[in-house]
Every structure is written in C-alpha cells, then in structure tokens.
Specification:
The chain is α+β, with helices and mostly antiparallel strands and 195 residues long. It contains 6 helices and 8 strands; from the N terminus they run βαβαβββαβββααα.
C-alpha cells in the first residue's frame, strides 16, 4: 500500500472543520504524538529520502518506515507501520536496541493532532489538523491506496484539498521543517555549501 498525502501550512482549523462537517465527516480522536526519528548506520535517510521513526501516542508505540517519495506534486511513498508493545519501558528498550545497532537519534517532533475520516470518491480520506511544536498549524490530507489506484487517489486528494480551501502546500516533512528551524544543515544545504 502507498501513502498519498499533501501537507498545507498555516491551516485555518475552524474553516476546514466547518467544511468537513458539511461533508458529514466522521470525527476521530484528538491526541498528542511524539515522533522519535532515527538515522541508519549504513546510509543517511535524509539523502535517500527515507524516514524511520518510533511514534508514541500516549502509551502506544508504533514503528514506521517511509520509503523515498515518488515524483509529483502530491507526495506518494511506501509506508509500513508496525505496532509495538505498549508502554514507556517498551519504547525505551526499543530505542536502546536501535542504539546498539548503530542507529542515531535525530530529533523528536511533537504535535497535537485532530483526526477526521470521511469517504470521498471511493477512498477513505483522512484529514489531520496538526499543531506542531515550534512549527505552527498544518493540515494533512491523506489516502492509503494500492499502487494501481494511485492516480485516482491523487485526483481525489487534490480535489478534496482544493474544496477545503487548502493552498499553501508544504512538501517538507515535519522533521525537515524542525531541523531547519533549529538551524541543522539539510542535505541540500550541505551540497550547496560543498560547491
């Protein structure tokens, strides 16, 4: 399955939720998330356009791998998410295991997320309204679909985002935005400075 997603900066949560209510969306939960990102010992995920994280949602723990992005205006990439044992101890044990294997902690992205679900164009559309620490308010619109339905999902997603009034597309991940805000050089910056 592939994740088809677009992120939008400076989101007006009230206007988006008003439109979603008109569409008879199913409101999901509101929750805090802490995404602990790691870099591999054998390659630099920033350069290979991959991501590897431990997501903490309360006491729940999830391991997520995201593959390189496909070309195009809408972000399309492989996403694998695996639930781990719940609890602080399980998260700490997993992070110690990663350190022993040579993985390096990069940063932690913390956010409050409101999740809305609805059906649109034959797909389950998920709209997340994120208040990200140090970065601000964002809306993410996402569909998960098999590879043979990517183009249809991309079209539904683009139409839904436009109907929600979302225009300020942000292609960078929260991790990249946070590292840039903290002044950490990004691969493009490193390559530019090396010239």
């Amino acid at each position: 399955m592939l994740e088809i997603e677009q992120k939008f900066a400076d989101a007006d949560f009230a206007a988006i939720e008003k439109r979603l209510t008109e569409w008879h969306m199913r409101r999901g939960e509101e929750r805090g998330e802490a995404d602990h990102y790691f870099n591999a010992p054998d390659r630099d995920f920033a350069r290979t356009d991959e991501a590897f994280r431990l997501r903490r949602v309360g006491l729940a723990n999830f391991l997520t791998y995201k593959g390189p992005k496909h070309p195009g205006a809408v972000k399309v990439r492989t996403e694998l998410e695996i639930p781990l044992r719940d609890g602080d101890e399980a998260a700490e044990q997993f992070m110690r295991l990663l350190a022993h294997l040579g993985y390096r902690a990069v940063a932690v992205v913390r956010k409050r997320r409101r999740i809305h679900h609805l059906e649109r164009g034959g797909f389950v559309l998920v709209v997340c309204l994120d208040e990200v620490e140090e970065l601000g308010r964002f809306a993410e619109v996402e569909i998960v679909a098999p590879e043979d339905q990517v183009e249809a999902a991309r079209s539904v997603l683009t139409d839904a985002a436009a109907a929600l009034g979302l225009t300020n597309v942000e292609r960078r991940s929260y991790l990249n935005l946070l590292l840039a805000a903290q002044g950490t050089p990004q691969p493009a910056d490193i390559a530019e400075n090396a010239r």
